[in-house]
Amino acid sequence: MNVKCLSVESLKGHLILLSAIFMFSMGCQTTGPSSAADNGSLIFLAQTLGPATQLQRADEQGETSPILVSEKWRDLHPDVASDGRIVFMSNRHTESGIDLSVRRDRLRVFLWAPGDDSPQALTDGPGSAVMPRFGPQGKRVAFVHAGPSEATLKYLPEPGADPVPLVASRDVLDYSWSADGSQVAAVLFASSDSRLALVDVKEGGGETTAITPKESGGVITAVSWSPTGDALAYIVNTRDEARRLYRYELATGEHTLLSDPEADVQQPIDWSDDGETILYSALVDFDFFYDEEKREKVYRGSMQVFRVDRQGNRQAVTEGPGRHGTPVFSPGEERIAYLHAEKLDARRLSLRTVNLEGKEERVLYDRVAPESTLQWSSTNLKNRR
């Protein structure tokens, strides 16, 4: 299946990172956290030296500051709690020297709290721990443990506790907490097939419900639970090589196609507080070919940001050439933040915001890493997944 997805969250999801991150120079220059006030700032990944990325924040006035300054580590996939704490995965370690027998980095989950000089490691041991996410109240942290032959979705009841396994499969492509924290929706992948499993957290794990995609033969790659708890949004790779966004009503089992059938939806997505509207990005008129003279791939089309309601009524937020992706609502939902580049395959993006009609554009930062997601840090308790 030809998966038309330019983000790091492709068919293999974040597990691709396990084979993509290679060893580089050891050692790190790390300073304490920034003293900048956090009044509804955007958390993102800044591009530093080579493959290194660092956690950064920016406010709507364009004031930026690093959360943890690092020139060596790859700090990835941050998730922000309502009190400002951040969990993220990283190849950080304390060993000195270089082990030439190691071909890829081991990723662990870290927790940083405002005022901390350095982050606390929440996971250790063999394998990598990826995709960390806070539960709705910010106490529990879920993550995917990637072993040599299978992946297991686990959660930490609290920092320092032993992880509790929930469900395992060859790959766990994505997952999302329910609004009340009692369940997790997990995308499980094995043998070219995927299913969307609802897993009971309170009972210590175990799959309770399996949801199959509306389109026969489709492969679900991403899921997001609505903040109101009554619906799931999922992205499916279809047999006709499209990536489509659906809304699934938990009460009725109804699937509603939300995206243009000809566009290729990218993840992640973002919900409005009332669960009525979804922000997403999609490749439009996308194609590529290999230029023999230049010896490189040439991409055609663009990536645009859309708003869509539960009936599938869509409105384009952005327009023009290039890449417009990773959209998120501001806490008051008066503006939308997204990442932009002039070319689809750009290795450096800019952080921008616009109003709901795509006007009044502001450029906040111009050295964002291409694997970055966006998240607003605020006192809003809504768990956007």
Q: Estimate percent helicity.
A: under 10%
Q: What kind of oligomer do you see? A: single chain
Distance between the termini: 26 Å
Number of helices: 1
Q: Pairing-aware structural class of the strands and helices?
A: mainly beta
Rounded to an integer, what's the Rg over CA atoms? 20 Å
The fraction of residues assigned to DSSP E strands is over 45%
What composes the largest sheet? 8 strands, mixed
Taken in chain order, the helices and strands follow as HEEEEEEEEEEEEEEEEEEEEEEEEEEEE
SS elements, strand count: 28
Overall pLDDT, averaged?
A: 84
Q: Detail the poorly predicted runs.
A: 6-39, 96-103, 379-385
Coarse shape: globular
3D structure, described in words:
- Helices cover 1% and strands 48% of the residues.
- By secondary structure, it is mainly β.
- The strands form six sheets. Strands 20, 21, 22, 23, 24, 25, 26 and 27 form an eight-stranded mixed beta sheet that branches. Strands 3-2-1-28 form a four-stranded antiparallel beta sheet, with no helix packed on it. Strands 4-5-6-7 form a four-stranded antiparallel beta sheet, with no helix packed on it.
- Strand 8 and strand 9 (141-146) form a beta hairpin.
- The model is unreliable at 6-39, 96-103 and 379-385 (pLDDT under 50).
Based on the model shown, name its key terms.
single chain, 385 residues, mainly beta, 8-stranded mixed β-sheet, 4-stranded antiparallel β-sheet, 28 strands, 1% helix, globular, disordered C terminus
Outline the secondary-structure elements.
Elements: H1 17-20, E1 41-47, E2 53-58, E3 64-66, E4 75-80, E5 86-90, E6 108-112, E7 120-121, E8 128-134, E9 141-146, E10 151-156, E11 164-169, E12 171-177, E13 183-190, E14 193-200, E15 207-211, E16 219-225, E17 231-237, E18 243-249, E19 255-257, E20 264-271, E21 277-291, E22 296-309, E23 314-316, E24 322-329, E25 335-341, E26 349-355, E27 362-368, E28 375-377
Parallel strand pairs: 22-24
Antiparallel strand pairs: 1-2, 1-28, 2-3, 4-5, 5-6, 6-7, 8-9, 9-10, 10-11, 12-13, 13-14, 14-15, 16-17, 17-18, 18-19, 20-21, 21-22, 22-23, 24-25, 25-26, 26-27
